[in-house]
Amino acid sequence: MRETLTRLRYRYWPDHLLGEILSKRWTETAIPVILLLIVGFALSRSLEHFLSPASLADTARQAGEIGFIGLGMALVVIVGGIDLSVGSIFALTDFCALYLLDVLNWPVPAVVVVTMIVGGLLGAVNGVLIGYLRLRAFITTLITLIIYRSAYDLLIQRYSNAIASAFPDIPSWDFIGGGTVLGIPSVALVYIVIAIFGHVFLTRLRPGWHITAIGGSRRSAYNSGIPVRRTIALCYVASGVLTSIGALFFAARLGTVGGDIGVGLEVIVLTATVLGGITLGGGKGSVVKSMVGVLIVLLVTNGLTAMNARGGVNRMALASILLVAAMVDIRWQKNRTRIISKVYVAPTYHALPPPPPTEIGKGGPFEQNDRLREVSLIGLGRIEAPEDVILDRNDVLYAGSRHGDIIRFFPPDYERMEVFAHIGGQPLGMAFDKQDNLYVCIGGMGLYRIKPDGTVEKATDETNRSLYSVNDDSRLRLADDLDITDDGLIFFSEATVRYEMDEWPVDGLEARGNGRIICYDTKTGATHTALRGLKFPNGVAVASDGQSILFAETFGCSIKRYWFAGSKKGDVEIVMDNLPGYPDNINLASDGNYWLALVGMRSPSLDLAWKMPGFRRRMAKRVPVDEWLFPNINTGCVVKFNEQGKILESFWDLKGLNHPMITSMREHRGYLYLGGIANNRIGRFKLDNADPDFVQYDKRWGKSS
User: Fold this and answer.
1) Which of 57, 169, 357, 395 is the 20 to 30 Å CA partner of 319?
2) CATH class for domain 17-341?
3) Delimiting residues of CATH 2.120.10.30 domain(s) in the chain
4) What's the pTM?
5) What CATH superfamily classification does 376-700 receive?
6) 145 vs 41, 247, 436, 686, CA distance in Å?
7) CA separation, residue 652 to residues 118, 389, 662 (Å)
8) What is the pLDDT of residues 8-36, one digit of tens each?
9) pLDDT, tens digit (0-9, with 9 covering 90-100), for 68-122
10) Which pLDDT does position 249 carry in this prediction?
11) How far apart are the first and last CA of the chain?
């Protein structure tokens, strides 16, 4: 009875939702915060006109002006720096615009261009000092803040009267400062356009990826060939240009060069940046987060101003918000792993029946033997982590490497090797299509296609998001094995939607149904989730009927069958439900049956712990990660089975000298080729009574033309 109640509690109680909510950054709750601020100020008796059109238009203009500076600050922070001089740059470029227009009587287009150039040059000073000379960003921009502010003070002492006495009546300048389009301020429209470009730049263009990569790890970015110093310098230049754009709109709106222009602006912008969720450590951030932070800060400051709060109160409020936001950000980054292990990891009840015997002398289909003792080795010490292996029609052997390469070995002796393609992520499952394109599941990246000439193309890295998921599960985190149907449908498994590739043991600790089967249509390019709620799905193989697939649930220690077409479409049935080890890749055998790799063997301690979710939860909270109970993947074997779930043969290496763990195998022309993600070699084993002419893709699709 107690076991039944435990099973029901951990199956249906969504403990992991709390962890998903707490593990999200502040930005995910920023929209409700904005709405609460608007409603709160709107309902205040002292702010009767807070939501009036005039007030909203004024807020939009301020948001646009400060938003430009916020975008520049976001770039600098994402790349791993900080810019405290934005307030002084804002003041200098405001002076520049008004001096050129009011004193020198320059045309408006020239004023705009030159002011932006001046802003870029001021930012370039920071860029050269920080990017190329590698000075500390904080102290460098603090010094330039003082220098630029001193220069501004000297300039306004001499020219402020000349600027103040000029009142140019220029329609284009007036439109910049106070014009509207369909009731929307011009500054807001320009800001939206630049923000959209900034979003595309950061998320879709290579230079934007470089900025994020540098902020994440400068050393790794440098080793990857990214021009780190130049990119950092250009980010400060861009910050200066964006600040000057904000100053142009400010100058056109107010036309003043007072002594307090830009004072404290760096605090406002930095508060907006951190409050929006852009981490001070660099490497994470977005345009949307910058926009949200600016809106929150403006709502707070404008609300306090409308309530007749003194300037000191405003500054104190901003400083307090910045302090709290920075503290949360820094503490989160420092203790992220510990926090996640306490609130995000949510073990559930998972009971497995006693495993079938494997010991010598006890009989049974899994009885240990030493049949893999004579395995010959390919690429010993020259390849690392060949999780999957595959051969083409010309007997060339392909395997992935942990360095992000696809390596190929040439027959007949497979001594000569070369890098066929470089992808960058860990290659896992592989399969050829009818046109000899090699499709590869890349951990953390998705599904990729490599053409026969070595050209790498992304097939898909996302699927449809589930409606009931708190966490965004549209991105592919751990695509790991695949197979292709005659009609060009690619079914591949994604082991977990909650954890990254290097965190796979944590998914084993949870033992939840975090995995899924995904279908990619090579004809239309569409991707959809075919099956959810699987316990670390791994191997995938198209069944003989062409209407179903066989797939492995690693932590379920089972093989299942899913019909994607025909009269049973959508049905799932169990083929084998109590394996003695953890199933991995599945591939076709020459006699019409299937090969299966058991990556490791079950242990009584973990089987027992899987029935005790409370114990595993306490272990996650109190015990270091390297001392958790993990699935054993040190010793495995290869078995042959049929579609009825009957084990026909098993192959073991008792001493583990050649292949201590096996993640994949391929039969090709009478040999079985073995791969292992923890190995530094590929195994080649001569099969007895196997078809010496068997080539998997020739059998399925015929000879290549």
Assistant:
1) 57
2) mainly alpha
3) 376-700
4) 0.66
5) TolB, C-terminal domain (2.120.10.30)
6) 34, 16, 60, 73
7) 72, 19, 10
8) 444 444 444 444 433 344 444 444 554 45
9) 999 999 999 999 999 999 999 999 999 999 999 999 999 999 999 999 999 999 9
10) 93
11) 64
